[in-house]
Amino acid sequence: MSLSQKFAAFAAFARQAGALSMPYFRSEEKWKARGLLVAIVALNLAAVYMLVLINDWNRLFYDALQNKDQPVFWTQLGRFTWIAFAYIIIAVYKFYLTQLLEMRWRAWLTAHYTRRWLANHAFYRMELARFTQPEAPAGNGNSPDNPDQRIQEDLNLFTSYSVSLSMGLLNAVVTLASFVGILWGLSGAFDFTFNGASYNIPGFMVWMAVLYCVVGSVLTHYIGRPLISLNFQQQRFEADFRHHMVRVREYSESIALDKGEAVERGQLDTRFGRVLVNYLQLLRAQKRLTWFTVGFGQAAVVFPFIVAAPRFFSGAIQLGQLMQIASAFGRVQDSLSWFVDNYDRLASWRATTDRLTSFERAVSEKKEAQSSAEWSRSAIDSGAPEAADLTVSLPTGAVLLAGETLSVAAGNQVLLQGPSGSGKSTLFRAFAGIWPFAKGRVRMPASSMFIPQRPYFPNGPLRDALAYPEAASHYSDDALRQALNEALLPDLVTRLDEADAWSQKLSGGEQQRLAIARVLLKQPQWVFADEATSALDPHAEQTLYQRLTALVARTGGGLVSIAHRPTVAGFHGQTWTLVPEPEGAAARYRVRVAATGDVPG
């Protein structure tokens, strides 16, 4: 990579870090954020000033020791006491305010990204994209892995590294500016003869410090460069391993019934194996870097004494000046070695910033894709569901339906049928407005509810699971109990305040009945049921369908179902059948509309 390419890459990274950082300092909390930042900067400057005072104290204290000047010795000890006390106060409040800024910044970013991730079904669209647009190893893909980890862990690392590294860099710059003049004045000139000519180098110690640190920084970069990609991959593999363990916990009953423990153990071993392999590579890279940085730091301890020793032994300087030179050299060297000392953390920060940038890009792209989509879905206060010129595709680009016009009349019940995998649930998703691979126009009444194949119930009190996504306080206890009774769940009536993981606690049939209880509680006009009773016995299925059809008849709406049992067909007056089209047609299926008979009473 050429120098211009490296500069361009650095500029691009700086823009990425700035784009992630600036929103907080321009947000509704900007004055608190800026105030904390100014206070932290002021405390860092004060800390550097204390170091300057300590450097001057070194000269006076060690001269007093060399001269056996007891009064000056005790005076300087007293002076050191108040300098140290002031430095301790500054250090404590610098730490406290820095942590406070990191916490508030992380809280704001977490709320900001959580809101954007959940808005406009971005979380759903990103999961769909993962199956067709897997993320590139470098993290530049459109479907970032493990968004939960990016919000929970990466934001924490980003704020922590951003504050600590920026303040560290500020400290290094200010320390360098404060001590370079001191070191220049103390180091004197270096005279030497070469090839018969005499030369004089003023401020020799400063130039030696610069040369020492430039060489160290260049070598550190080339030794530690692999850490950036290895840190990125480590975070990814750790998140994949954690995510699979969460899935084992969520599907524990199914795995136990299938006796799939060995398979899951193999999956976990494979994912953890990737963690270990990458970590071993990361460890080796860190070991190589540590060899150099530790040796570099240890050599810096004696380097100024070696360079200044001839002047001390010649009597040109006293012990106090030698110690002051060593102290000033150490401060200058520490400042110039900031890159060397922080390379590992810079690599982690770079990896974290790349992961957050790809996440930010993916969320923005999903939002832009929705705003520029070639279809529209509008909620209407009254009327019936209808779709005009509707084209539904798969994420792979294959067209399932093309140019379909469908509508459901009030008081009608429609049964959607077709071969397995023909896209019945996908058509439901298009009506719901969450399927991104669709074109056309859809109008849906606001008073509509969908019952998915796998209903979701939040962990917590049963009343919250029943009322989800609304607050349970919107409904009386009598209404909640009535809905449970109507959904054939009388055993749950007395457990409204019991907290549990209901998606795991309840059987498949109980989960389906609880989802129907949610519909009976909220009394929508239009209900879309996707295999909503597939786990129920025929008697329970017939009873619940009677209550669903009675509900939509009472509210002046209708029912659209996906089901395979012949007994369910009797509750519907119309059938939409997905009929396969011949090869080469515009779509794989077309919708055939037909009457199915009278609705049973």
Structure report:
It is a single chain. Helix 2 runs antiparallel to helix 10, helix 3 (70-118) packs antiparallel against helix 5 and helix 7 (227-250) runs antiparallel to helix 9. With 601 residues, this protein is an alpha/beta fold. It has a six-stranded mixed sheet with strand order 8-11-12-6-13-14, sandwiched between helices. Strands 3-7-4-5 form a four-stranded mixed sheet, covered by helices on one side. The model is unreliable at 134-142 (pLDDT under 50). The longest helix is centred in the middle third of the chain and has 53 residues, at 261-313. Strand 13 and strand 14 form a beta hairpin. It folds into two domains: 23-370, ABC transporter transmembrane region fold (Up-down Bundle), CATH 1.20.1560; 375-595, P-loop containing nucleotide triphosphate hydrolases (Rossmann fold). It is built from 19 helices and 14 strands. 63% of the residues lie in helices and 13% in strands.
